[in-house]
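Appendix B. Worked example

We walk through a single record from start to finish. Start with the input: the chain for DUF4399 domain-containing protein, Paraburkholderia ribeironis, length 144.
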Amino acid sequence: MYKLIAVAALVTSAVLAAPGFAVAGTTPAPPDAHVYIGYPNDGQVVPANKPFRVWFGLRFMGVAPKGVKYPNTGHHHLLIDTDLPPMDQEIPSDRNHLHFGAGETETMIQLPPGKHTLQLLLGDDMHIPHNPPVYSKKITVIAR
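Next comes the structure step. The output line below is what the pipeline stores for this chain.
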């Protein structure tokens, strides 16, 4: 019996430590939900120190503002030059984690010269990632 418990604990630890595994919030998301950056494209050159448009795409879910709890909906968060935050906590709100709690599906941002990363993360009515988490691939843009 103790060996079985030890093996189960070892397997659980291995899964939790596996790359890409994320503990998520409690709001369910469809398993086929997909969020993506429609513009700019990965590797694209954007103007430095001038505003440019970032367009958010979402499939198999809807967009609802912060505070609106409706099944299969959420709102966008744009991550700039940062990794994904903990998936079981409220998404931070700072210069690297931009919140679009009014339900926006695009924005204008301005970046200094250099290489930058952009990634979208969908949050529920309380800014907590869904289960499973719905996030885009991380893209790179070059501001010059």
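Two observations about the output. The chain has one domain: 2-143. The helical segments are 2-17.
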